[in-house]
Fold this protein.
Amino acid sequence: MATQKQVKTKSEQSTDLEEKVQKLRQLYADGTDIQKSALENVIRALESGAPAKDPAAPVRTAGRIGRRQGKVSELTVIAPLAPGGAKRMRAFLEILHGSIGNEMVDMVGTVHDMRFVILDNDTKLLFCTAYDLDWDPYIEDFATKIPDILDLQFGDVEGWPGVRSPKVKDFIASHQITADFWYVANPNLTVVETRRLERIGKATEEFLDKIS
């Protein structure tokens, strides 16, 4: 049975704001002049604006590791690259991923976005993605639907066991870092739901164009 969400009174909202302002001023007491000036501008905006709204969806765990907000979860990995791996990875991403690779990732059906960034003089990989629902099913989807693409993507990471290995989840989790803060514009929409809304919007626009 769903619990009814309690709405805070204006007095409670005002008290919450005062407490946050006090904590922020304490936090930046030894900050730079730029930070202190920016903070006072933000505080004035908060005090003069509308009451803050609660998040559209609560932040909770994505399962084994990572954060989840509503129906969307985040995954951030920093891992060492094997010697020469950065060059091969860049070439693979340039040659294949802009076309066939992207189409194959779409087959998974739960990926909102995906980023590969090579760091520290080609010695490390920063990989970030947002996906639907929980961590374990997400990894399993890649392992069952497009395993070879994943092995090409991450094969130059030092120690990569292969996506078919029973050790792959432990390997990914050992290099994953949970985000300290994460913003999601539409946390209650999955990839499938977003695409459905796009199709509806396009059909509506075409219909309106015809009758105008």
